[in-house]
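so my prof wants the structure for this chain in the tokens format not the other one, which i didnt know existed until like an hour ago. anyway here's the sequence
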Amino acid sequence: MKTRVLVVDDSALMRGVLSEMINRSGDLEVVGAAPDAQAAREMIKALNPDVLTLDVHMPKMDGLEFLERLMRLRPMPVVMVSSYTQDASDTTLRALELGAVDFIGKPRAEQGRSMEQYADELADKIRAAKGARLQARVMSAPPPVPVTPLAASASLKMGAGSHGKLIFVGASTGGTEAIKEFLLGIPADCPPILIVQHMPESFTTSFARRLDSLCQPKVVEAQGNERVKAGTVYIAPGHSHLLIRRAGTGYQTELSGAEPVNRHRPAVDVLFDSAAQLVGRQAIGVILTGMGKDGAQGLLRMRQAGARTFGQDEASCVVYGMPREAFLVGAVEEQYPLSEISRKVLSAVNR
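here's what i got, hopefully its the right format
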């Protein structure tokens, strides 16, 4: 049976383009296209779609307001469709907090990226959304979480020197909220943390800024050639792979514009491979919710190099894809609910 999709966008042209792209996939079918929230509400009642694609900015009722009401009254999988502006990036991240499963930028011609590739990505996100585990979200920012500083013995090890621990994290679908929850459990005096979240360019700046406003460690978008420091989290920018390289007695970030890996740039496998090669048993690897298999082989190589490795369990994942693949190949040493992972990682640091 085909997945039934309702497209909601105020632009008639965009509704047509998205509908045509979605209908190319034999397992997906657009059952309706709505120009605003009011029409969408009536179509949802009449057509009972499986998945909704929702424009971030709409007339009459903003996409965020509509999403909040929808998730409260009739929760269903939603994929946000966003323009590539700073304002839209901030709004999209808020939509993910409110319960949207995933997002995608509006289709546009890009160097090295065809409309066919965009259509394939859109279809993948809709398929993943249909099978996603919907997460209840709160309307306001989370309250401060009391976080215990690391033991003094661990704190002494946390500098960027070659003897310090480093933490590496990868995520995709559902990952923006999972990463936020993970970091809310991390103290300000943490080891350096490097993160790859599958996200387009322009969105990662907003993502890093939002995390920085909520979490105790400093969170930045990696710029490349930075000396990694304790108490700092480095988010891979949406245009480049993030790696780590030696710099004297410590490490630096490195950005690469090399070809996508597992269809992604940044790719989790690229970050994890650099950790396996250079950091070895001083590394801690974490793989969180996401569709696909990116990160599975890299995490396996980290474990084989002596790193501690953790995976998010199925029950707490929005999409149990990447953690499942890593678990199946033997890359995950221990698997836990998202609510426990930061505590387990800190225990590994203290050891």
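also thought this was worth mentioning. The radius of gyration is 20 Å.
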